[in-house]
Amino acid sequence: MSIIGKLQDLGLPEVLQILSLGKRSGVLSLIGKRGSGKLVLHEGRVVYASSDNINRLGYNLVQRGLVQAKDLDYALQMQNDFKKPLGSILLVLGFITREVLSQEIKNHIVKAFQDFMSWKEGIFFFEPEDIDQESLVVKDGIKVEHLLIEQARQQDEECHIVIDRELW
User: Fold this and answer.
1) What is the CA radius of gyration of the chain?
2) What range does the domain containing 88 cover?
3) How far is Cα 49 from Cα 107, in angstroms, rounded to an integer?
4) How many folded domains does the chain comprise?
5) What's the predicted TM-score (pTM) here?
6) Which residues pair with 127 in a beta bridge?
7) Of 21, 59, 123, 126, which residue has the fewest beta carbons closer than 10 angstroms?
């Protein structure tokens, strides 16, 4: 089932809830004035995300000292040849542990999701796709409900910070 629409008509939370409840697998692409991005879902759970507005996963891994720059460059060359996710290649080459990479990918998903939730305009389209389970680092993914709750918590904290500043 392909889905296409405007974020002005059907917000991202609603779209994701439809895909989550239907346990859909595929890629939800977003295009707007702020850039583009994607959320990869496996059986209704988010297993990867990317956005033009946040740093790429590989860059974050190098910045945090979890992967050497030369190792990332080598893995990116391998990615071009084998068309596999970067994380899977880093794991196979032994440049990072599954546990560390899994946590970093989850953090990356949350950051991308937070960015997308700020988009009020744009288009989305979902293309069903069989996801290669062997190449998944975050095998169980993140439930859409958890992402929505985390987003609401973040907004609540930001609201309290603004209110606290106004009181002082």
Assistant:
1) 17
2) 3-167
3) 10
4) 1
5) 0.85
6) 27
7) 21
